[in-house]
Amino acid sequence: MNRRKFLHLSALTAPLLSVKNALANGFEGTTKPIIISTWDSGMPVNAAAWKVLSTKGTALDAVEAGAIYMENQIDCCVGLGGYPDRDGIVTLDSCIMDHKANIGAVAGLERIKHPVSVARKVMEKTPHVILVGAGAQQFALENGFTLESGELSESAKKAYAEWLKTSEYKPVINIENKKQNGPFAPAFFNDGTPNHDTMGLVAMDSFGNLSGAVTTSGMAYKLHGRVGDSPIIGAGLFVDNEVGAATSSGTGEEVIRICGTHLVVEFMRQGNSPEMACKKAVQRIVNRDKAKAKTLQVGFLAMNKKGQYGAYAIQKGFVFSVKSNNENQIHQSKFLI
Ligand code: GLY
Fold first, then answer.
1. What's the whole-model pTM score?
2. How far, in Å, is the centroid of ligand 1 from the Cα of 230?
3. Which of 74, 96, 151, 333 has the most crowded CB, counting CB atoms within 10 A?
């Protein structure tokens, strides 16, 4: 199901879900296994991951499967179909982390379809944790990945051609359409342009182990070479199997500045619920520069070892998807401003 169709479906089911959300009262814990992922587009992503989790697969395999699903879609913001940088090149960022603090990441990867799987290979086959640009591509090719054409998807071509008319360098992501009513306002600008929705996933398997993955094409029309939070462990993703795990979506620079997901996990370690931990991390960004925070969006999503989960965003519009034996639905995140 493509993103637009999915958003349409989400809009139809929104009233029902919001009632359920109210009853859920803070997203109480659930049984393992469980997977949570950013955005409404996380629903089919969770379904792909659930095939692994529900057959006693590992959280690591599940988050990779979910990320691969998303990388196969033509989407504004994930995979080779995503929007390019200002030079017209799609560059992909991804990372993966397991319950033993094994980590792998790639940044600025070009023409390789599944950055999450390359990140996993970095984790499993090298003594390093991050490979970037040409080196990451070379490593991918040496490990059996195929070099794709590099041609933009039709939707990306159209959007890029439009952007080139002004070439205005004003990257703003995740300020959701505030004219849209209802809890699941889609991640589109008021003019209809899709904005950013990084796919971040966190799963707990039936053995109680946590893993996470993130995959993105990053900020549209970014400077060539720009790296966001998504491939940075501690920024876009952090897993501590004793405590919990967190991922983020939104303006990567702001997440990196506060080591966002590491901070969320540390707040959970101090006894905060996942939602409160995410709120405190958002508060840290907003307190630093409130005027600036009003112009951008960051959302954090977290799960603790009990399988309790929660999210918080700077602004309205951040949503996330949850799949467990008890539920399969989209939740609206609370927000600060
Ligand atoms: N959060 C994704 C990015 O900033 O690239």
1. 0.88
2. 6
3. 96
